[in-house]
Design a protein that fits this description.
Length: about 120
């Protein structure tokens, strides 16, 4: 006849009435819950950050589209102006072109002088 030793006859995974295995399982479950909650909060933060990035990208794309249209209109305006200057330089109005250039230099000099006085 064998005597039941320590832990013999107990169901596998438990160590008698002391509950050591159950407390280990509880500790693992609590740690898993804590890690799951931490992961959930990080995923939520990343989700909100990605949504904000998406909004920022949409705003930047809209701004770039507006700038593109403004650059196109400016390019057209400068092209027309250069065409007019070429017409002026070809004709007999070179005297007028020289006056415009001198006036432009005078305006830039006045602006430079005003900035220097500050």
């Amino acid at each position: 006849m064998r005597r039941a030793g320590l832990g013999e006859g107990a169901p596998p995974g438990s160590y008698g009435n002391y509950g050591y295995a159950n407390s280990g399982d509880n500790a693992c479950e609590e740690e898993n819950e804590r890690l799951t909650e931490s992961l959930r909060s990080k995923v939520t933060a990343i989700k909100s950050l990605s949504i904000e990035i998406g909004h920022e990208v949409k705003n930047q794309n809209k701004l770039l589209a507006e700038m593109d249209s403004q650059f196109d209109s400016t390019t057209g305006f400068l092209g027309k102006t250069m065409g007019r200057l070429k017409i002026l330089s070809r004709g007999s109005q070179t005297k007028l072109l020289c006056y415009m250039m001198l006036f432009s230099l005078f305006v830039f000099f006045v602006i430079y002088w005003i900035i220097k006085l500050r």
